[in-house]
Specification:
The protein is an alpha/beta fold and about 250 residues long. The chain folds into 2 domains: about 120 residues, Fructose-1,6-Bisphosphatase, Chain A, domain 1, CATH 3.30.540.10; about 110 residues, D-Maltodextrin-Binding Protein, domain 2 (3-Layer(aba) Sandwich), CATH 3.40.190.80. It contains 7 helices and 12 strands. It has a 5-stranded mixed β-sheet with strand order 1-2-3-4-5. The protein has a 5-stranded mixed β-sheet with strand order 7-6-8-12-10, with helices on both faces. Helix 1 packs antiparallel against helix 2 and helix 4 packs across helix 7. The relative contact order is 0.15. InterPro entries: CysQ/Inositol_MonoPase, Inositol_monophosphatase-like. This is 3'(2'),5'-bisphosphate nucleotidase CysQ. It comes from Erythrobacter fulvus.
């Protein structure tokens, strides 16, 4: 079966996995490290993903962190939103907490996606069409936060709710930590772009998690301005308490 014959979810998963393996190969064979490795990996993975999506879905729009934006996507109902290496720093440092994002927004909603975590043993791909059973949530919520720039709002809300902080690298790795039961809450308020969250949100929503802005309003994709100020992905049983704490602390 060719890529063009795959359904959208299978295509997203196949491409995320392939790009993830390519990134591992680049790291092992190039001899590069740090920023140079990150740049080489970004370029290679972006080329693979963009060429494959354009060949398999020529009528769809495409938004990538690593390509010049094409405004024609704004007139499309179906837009692929990708991040070839989410967590370039972590990838360059040979850490495990980086990801590949392949998401599809339908009428502005993150609907289909796959997030590859190639740095984990054996590589892992979490996908919107194959949701896993959620593990039992902890009594005291664990908040995944940036290992270098933890959001003040996340620190304050965690303190207010008796939670703990779990430092982690990329946005995709943090979002998937909530999916896999390593954390209950991912609250980010430092600003991101659409490619940072489209695929993770599609996967998280498919797993029954709450996904919104930190004021509770919907996340909207495929806009002219790709900047997204904040994001909340959390276990549904914690959503009201987290949103309430954000409002009280604002």
């Amino acid at each position: 079966m060719t890529l063009a014959e795959l359904d959208d979810a299978a295509l997203a998963a196949a491409l995320a996995a392939e790009a993830g393996q390519l990134l591992i190969d680049v790291r092992e064979r190039s001899g590069l490290t740090g920023k140079a490795l990150g740049q080489a990996g970004d370029e290679a993975a972006n080329r693979l993903l963009c060429e494959a999506i354009r060949a398999a879905r020529p009528d769809d729009g495409l938004l990538s962190e690593e390509e010049k934006d094409n405004a024609k996507r704004l007139g499309k109902r179906r837009v692929w939103i990708i991040d070839p290496v989410d967590g370039t720093r972590e990838y360059g440092e040979a850490r495990a907490d980086w990801a590949v994002h392949v998401g599809l927004a339908l009428d502005g909603v993150a609907s289909i996606g796959a997030v590859a975590l190639p740095g984990l043993d054996g590589g892992v791909v979490l996908r919107s069409d194959r949701p896993l059973a959620l593990k039992a949530a902890e009594e005291h919520p664990r908040f995944v936060v940036s290992r270098t720039r933890p959001a003040k709002e996340a620190e304050a809300v965690a303190a207010a709710l008796g939670g703990t902080l779990v430092p982690m690298g990329s946005a995709g790795a943090k979002a998937m930590a909530v999916v896999t039961g390593e954390a209950e809450v991912y609250l980010h308020s430092g600003g991101q772009h659409e490619w940072d969250s489209c695929a993770p949100v599609a996967v998280a929503r498919a797993h029954g998690l709450h996904c919104s802005r930190i004021d509770g309003s919907p996340l909207v994709y495929n806009r002219a301005d790709t900047f997204m100020p904040d994001l909340l992905i959390c276990r549904p049983e914690w959503a009201d308490r987290v949103l309430g704490a954000v409002a009280r602390l604002a």
